[in-house]
Amino acid sequence: MKLSILDYVPIFEGRNATQALNHTVELAQLAESLGFYRYWVAEHHQVFSVASSAPEMVMMSLLEQTSSIHIGSGGIMLPHYSAYKIAEQLKLMEARHPGRVDLGTGRSPSFKNVNHALNETKTKTISYKTQINDLMHYFNDDTNHNHRFKGLQATPLITTKPSMYILGMSKQSAAIAAEKGLPFVIALMGQANHNTENVINHYRDLFKQFHPQSESYVIISTFVITAEHQSLITQLERAFHLWLVRISYLDQPEFYPSIEFAMHRQLSKREEDKMNHNQNRVISGLPTDVMKKLNDVALRFSADEIMIQPHVFGETHRKTLLKLIAKENMTE
Q: What percent of the chain has pLDDT over 70?
């Protein structure tokens, strides 16, 4: 199975952003040595417990300190930015590291105040589909096409181009990916499986209509928790679910909770209910069981690739998780 990684760059209790970013570099290097295909970085604003507010900055650091693994964004929330500027940033990375740069884009608006802060200087709203068109225009150095910025090229001018991916949960996003002939990335976020299946089928059906001579490509992303012993898995689950509940608070926590903090935290009834509701947002268990569940997901949705999110507490536990998953994948 082709396996990849999506990293939120968590800031653990007792750690700071510098340590979190340094750990992400180490984890990407480990992922490369273990044979993971790509390593992506998420984008989150006003979430104090992660250090991934500018994935393009983290990407360049990872590209400079790895040699073969694909590095990308999972994803850059395009409506917040100029497609022209994003194209220049990604082409600069591609110039330094040809054939290794992935641009995953989404359109989540984030928190209301974040959305306002990122868009306050804009004079008009550009549709997401138009921005995707713009990016493809800039990456292809297309000067002849009747583009709204005719003759404008994103520099540097290079002979290769970054790979583009559309992230989404809806049929609307799937339709854009299909029409543009781009891979589609969808997360298992606890929604009913039939909804995921419907969105993926919609993407594949439209892709065949628009591009009958090409192959569609589906990546499914999911949180994963595993360790060598069930007792530790249970503790890691507790810390993960407490983090997941607390990031929805207006008063954001400043760190990803330690196992000790999570095990001793007295939960409110609301928190308990929310944690129970979130149970199916993560694939968890002993390594063999997790690998079986990942294979079941890949088989059910005919996924071309699975992207795991190793969002567990502790640098050592994250590294062990990757090693265990890679080992299980080799025995398949």
A: 94
Least-confidence region, from 146-150, 164-168, 245-249, 311-315:
146-150
Neighbours of 20 (CB within 10 A): 22
Q: What is the DSSP letter of 304?
A: S
Show the tokens assigned to 221. Answer: 């992303």
CA distance 29 to 18: 17
* pLDDT for position 192: 55
DSSP 105: E
- Which tokens go with 300? 């059910």
Calculate mean pLDDT across residues 24-52: 96
- Per-residue burial over 234-248, b = 16 or more CB atoms within 10 Å of its CB, e = otherwise: ebbbbbbbbbbbbbe
CATH class of 3-330: alpha beta
Residue with tokens 């760059």: 9
| pLDDT value of residue 125 | 83
Q: Which helix (H) or strand (E) holds 103?
A: strand 101-106
d(CA 327, CA 332): 9
pLDDT above 70 (res 190):
no
Q: Which helix (H) or strand (E) holds 220?
A: strand 218-225
116 near 83, Cβ under 8 Å? Answer: no
